[in-house]
Amino acid sequence: YYAMGNYPAAEPFLLDAKKIHKEILDEKHPDYATSLNNLAGLYQAMGNYPAAEPLLLEAKNIRKEVLGEKHPDYATSLNNLAALYQAISNYPAAEPLYLEAKNIRKEVLGEKHPDYAYSLNNLAHLYQAMGNSASSEKDMADKYAAAEPLYLEAKKLRKKVLGEKHPSYATLLNNLASLYKDMGNYPAAGPLYLEGLEVINSAIKQNFAFLSENEKELYFKTQAGTFAGFYSFSLRYKTENPEITGTVFNNVVKNKGLLLKSSTAMRTAILNSNDTALISQYEKWIALKKEISKLYSTEISKRTRDPEKLEQEANALEKDLVRGSTVFSDFEKLQNLNWESVKNGLKAGEVAIEFIRFKSESSKVAGGSSRRQSDTVLYCALIVKPDSKYPEMIKLFEEKQILEILNASSGNNYNQVNSIYGTNAKTNDTLYKLIWQPLEKYLEGVKTVYYSPDGLLHKVSFAALAKEKNLYLCDNYNLQHVSTTGKVAMSESSSLPFGDGRGGAVLTAGIFGGIEYSTDTTTHKLWPYLSGTLTEAEGIKNKFESRKVPVALYSGKNATEESFKRLFGSQPSVLHQTLSGFSTTDRSSQPSAQQLVPSIQHFSILHIATHGFFYPVPEEKQREDTIKQEVSEAMLAFRGGTSGFGLWQFVKNKNPLMRSGLVLAGASAISTAAKEFTDYSVPLKWQA
Questions:
Q1: pLDDT tens digits, one per residue of 253-284
Q2: How far is CA 339 from the centre of its chain?
Q3: With pLDDT > 90 as the criterion, what percentage of the chain qualifies?
Q4: CA separation for the pair 497, 575 (Å, rounded)
Q5: CB 43 within 8 A of CB 49
Q6: pLDDT for residue 398
Q7: pLDDT value at position 579?
C-alpha cells in the first residue's frame, strides 16, 4: 500500500507491526527499530515530519545501543534522519548525519558497495540544495564545488558496480546534470541529461513489453522526474542548442505512444492468431525481455548471463515478429517515432503541436541575480511544420493560471461553460490569450492543426476558444485532436481496425445523437436533451450515405448502452464476410445503407454526441467519511451497484477512464438518484 501511494491503508498495518514487535521482542530489538523506521518513512512521505522525527530518533538510538556505531543499519538510520532534516531545510542538522553515515559505509562496506555510492549521492544532493538556498554568491559557489566531486565519484562507482544501463546510474547522471544546470554550465549538463534519458528509455522499452497497462503507468511515474528535469533544462538551453528541442519532442511522442498503445491488446491479437510459430516467438521474446530487465538491475558481479548477448537475441526475434504480425509491427513503429517522422507526415498548410506539462524550477546561477523558487508546473507547446529545421518549444503558462480560469465558476450547468468560454453576446478570450495567442506567430499559412493536449488542457475545448466576438478557433483552423501527434507519422491503413482483404480500407460508421435521456417514469431531468446533436447526427448520416458508406444512426430511446456495447460484440471477420463481394475502390458497387446496416456489428468510425460526466481525482477526497457522506448509494446505481464495489471501482479509482463516462438513453430514469446528482457539484461533474 505504501508503494501504491495508498498511505491511509498502509498506516494501520505499520502500526500493528510496530505494536507486535514491541510486545513480542521488546523495545530494544533491531526488528522493532525497523518497524519504527518504516512507519517514519510513511509519515515522511505523507509530509507529516513532526510525527516522523521521534520515530527515526528512537530507531537510531536503538540501533546504536544494540548493533553498535559501526553497523550498516545504524548508518541507514543516520541517513534517513538526515534525509528528514534535508526535507524540512534543516541543512545544518542533516550534514553531520550524512557525513557519519558515509564514513561508516566506507569503513564497513567498502568503497565499491552500492550503499557507499548512495551516501556520496545524498551528501552531494544536500550540498547542491545548500548552494541553491545560499545567501551569498561565494557560499553558493562553495557548496556547488563541494557537491561536484561527490557526484562524480558516485557516478564512477555506480557505473563500475551496476553498469551503464542500471536505473540508479541514470539517476546519478541526471543529478550531476542538474548540478551543472544550477551552476550555469549548460554545455556540461546537456550530454549528461541525454545519456541519462537513453538509459531510462532503454529501460522503459524493455519493461513495457511485458508490463500490464496499470503497471506501465505506475512504472512511468517513477521515471517522470528525469523527463521533467530534462524538459526544464531544454527550455533554458534551446537558444544555445536549438536541436535539443527535437530530443524533447521525440521523448514526448514516444512516451505518449507507448502509454496509449495497449500491450494487452497486442498480446491478445498474437495469441488469437492461431499461428503457433508466431506465438512461440512472441513468448520467447517476452521471456528474454524480462530476463534482460532483471539482469540490468543486478550488480555486474552477480549477473549469471550477459544481458547484451540476450539483447542481440531479442532484437533478432523482434525482426521476425515485425514481419509476422501487423499489430507487433505497429507497436515497433511507435517506439521508433521521432519528430522528423511527424514532419514528413505533414502536408503543406498542416502543423503538429504537442502540449507538455512538467515541473520546472527557476535557479540561482553563479554570477546572476535570479533566485531558486519553489517548483511550479509549467505548460509548453512543441510545434512541428513541414519545413521545420527543429521543433519550436514555446513556454505558455503555469498550471495555477489555468486552474484559476477553470475553477472561477462552479456548478454543473451551462453557466459554468459560458463563464469559461463566453457566449456569442459576451466574448471571453481569457483562455485564448493564455493557450493559443502565444502560438499564432508560428502558424501563418496553417489551415490544419494536429494537436495533442496534456494535463488540464484535456479539459479545454480548443474549438470553442474565442479570439474575438463570433470568431472561434474552429473558424480559423481545421482542428484535429489526437492522443499523440505520432499518429500523423503512422500510415492510415495501420490505424484502421480492419481492411477489405485486398489492401483497401473499409469505412463503416455508427452514429449516436439526439439521445433521449428521460423516460415516461422520469421525475427529474438531470441531463437535458441536446436538440442540436440530432441535426448534427442526421447531417453526418446523409453525408456517409451519399458516398455509399454503410452507416447506422442511434437516436432517441434507441441510443442505449446495450446498443453501444453490441457495436463491439463481433470480431472484424463478420464485416469481412459481409463486404466480401464489394469493391472499396468503386463506391457505387457497394450495398445501400438499408441493405447492409443490419449486418454490421463492428464500426471503423464512431461518432457520439452526448453529455459526459466524471468524478474528481481521489486525492481531492482523502477522508473516507467525507466520500461516504457525499456519494450516496443512489448515485452509484448506474456505476456498479449500491455495494462498496461501485465506490472503490469507480468513484475512487485512480484511473481517470474508470471515473468518467458517457450518458446514453434512459440515464435520467433513476429518478431518485437524478435529484441527488444535481445536489453535488464536486463529487460528480458533467459537461456537454
A1: 988 877 776 666 677 778 877 888 888 988 99
A2: 20
A3: 47
A4: 11
A5: yes
A6: 94
A7: 34
Q: What is the pLDDT of residues 66-76, one digit of tens each?
A: 999 999 999 99
Cell 457497394 maps to which residue? 590
Least confident segment among 20-29, 104-113, 518-527, 624-633: 624-633
pLDDT tens per residue, range 573-591: 333 333 333 333 343 444 4
pLDDT band for position 506 (cuts 50, 70, 90) = low
Rounded to whole angstroms, how far apart are CA atoms 247 and 346?
Answer: 19
- Give the β-pairing of 509-515 and 605-608: parallel
| Three-state DSSP class for residue 350 | strand
User: Is the CB of residue 5 less than 8 Å from the CB of residue 14?
Assistant: no
Give 356's strand partners.
380
Which carries the bigger pLDDT value, residue 635 or residue 9?
9
Q: What is the pLDDT of residue 625?
A: 41
Amino acid at 144: Y
| Torsion over CA: 447, 453, 456, 461 (sign) | positive
Between the two ends of the chain, the Cα-to-Cα distance in Å is: 37
Mean pLDDT of 444-468: 93
Q: Which residue, 601, 595, 613, 615, is CA-closest to 655? A: 615
Report the distance separating Cα 280 and Cα 247, nearest Å. Answer: 36
Q: Which residues pair with 542 in a beta bridge?
A: none
For 400, counting Cβ atoms within 10 Å of its Cβ (0-12 exposed, 13-18 middle, 19+ buried), the class is exposed
Rounded to an integer, what distance in angstroms lies between the CA atom of residue 147 and that of residue 129?
10
Is 119 in a helix, a strand, or coil? helix
Dist CA 178 CA 24 (whole Å): 47
Q: Percentages helix, strand, coil for the chain, rounded to the nearest 5? A: 60, 10, 30
Q: Kindly report the CA angle at 31 between 27 and 34, in degrees rounded to 5?
A: 100
- Neighbouring-strand partners of residue 380: 356, 395
468: helix, coil or strand? strand
SS3 355: strand
171 is written with which cell numbers?
539517476
Look at the chain and count its residues.
Answer: 688
Decide: helix, strand or coil at residue 425.
coil
SS3 state of residue 116: helix
Inter-residue contact 120 to 176 (CB < 8 Å):
no
Inter-axis angle of helices 72-87 and 114-132, nearest 10: 20
